[in-house]
Amino acid sequence: MIGTLILPQYAFSTVYVIPVKSQIEPGWLLFFERSLTEAEENKAQAIILDMNTPGGYIDTAIEAKNLISDFTAPVYVFVSDAALSAGAYLALAADQFYMSPASTIGAAEPILLGGGQVNEKTLSFWEAEMRTIAEKQGKDPDIAAAMVRKELIITNMVKGGELLTLTSTEAERLRF
Question: H helices within the chain, ranges in order?
Answer without folding.
Answer: 26-41, 58-70, 86-93, 120-136, 141-146, 168-173
